[in-house]
């Protein structure tokens, strides 16, 4: 079944007859490691916002699939995507580009190498800003004009005024409450439509495990799904940090379990990533009970 067939008619038209032609089927999307939303409304709302030229902010725990979600949206709109990975070292050059020395016919010249923001604007494609709240608060205001109705920026390195081509859109992702992150200021947050991305569970998680790992034994797969459910519940109850329930880590454990015992796979992929002994013991006890 085509993924877009699951969407309301007026929304699927935004993809199939909109700025980009959609070509990815639901089966292909899963097989290629695409994001399978736990609620089709997540996809509907994201497509709606992007098709109307709005920016979206994917908000959720680590390992919930935010980057996969962004890649899937890019695939559905059948266009490439430039990426920015935020950190405290992010600066104007990382966003916009930099000058360097080059040679033209044996003559040395100064050449400007475009960065992800300028590239995505000039090509009219998506820009993905990962972990946007890891950047220093004084850095991101550089692109405020890119994120609002103006869709323009003055390149401080070349003085060129850049206006985004049709098709340009911004998808950002945020993990709240982690070490090194800072709260987004209201001026920046107000430039986004916020979409909460929860963990995937149940049958959808089973599809992802079958499509993206080497684990094909159904009974073992069901045990990992139960483990994931127990971990997510423990996170909601405040017994574990969100890292413990990362779907990314669970998929690693599923892969390893095809060659080493599942409990050891869980130890390497999940338990040893945790900092608190109390949390490590909690997860090990769950693994002992299930496996």
TrEMBL record:
Q: Which residues form the AAA+ ATPase domain?
A: 52-201
Report the Pfam families cross-referenced here. AAA_5
Extract the CDD domains matched here.
AAA
Tell me the InterPro entries matching this sequence: AAA+_ATPase, ATPase_dyneun-rel_AAA, CbbQ/NirQ/NorQ/GpvN, ClpA/B, P-loop_NTPase
Protein family according to the UniProt entry: Belongs to the CbbQ/NirQ/NorQ/GpvN family.
Name of this chain's protein: MoxR family ATPase
This protein's species is: Virgibacillus tibetensis
Give the classification, highest ranks.
Bacteria, Bacillati, Bacillota, Bacilli, Bacillales
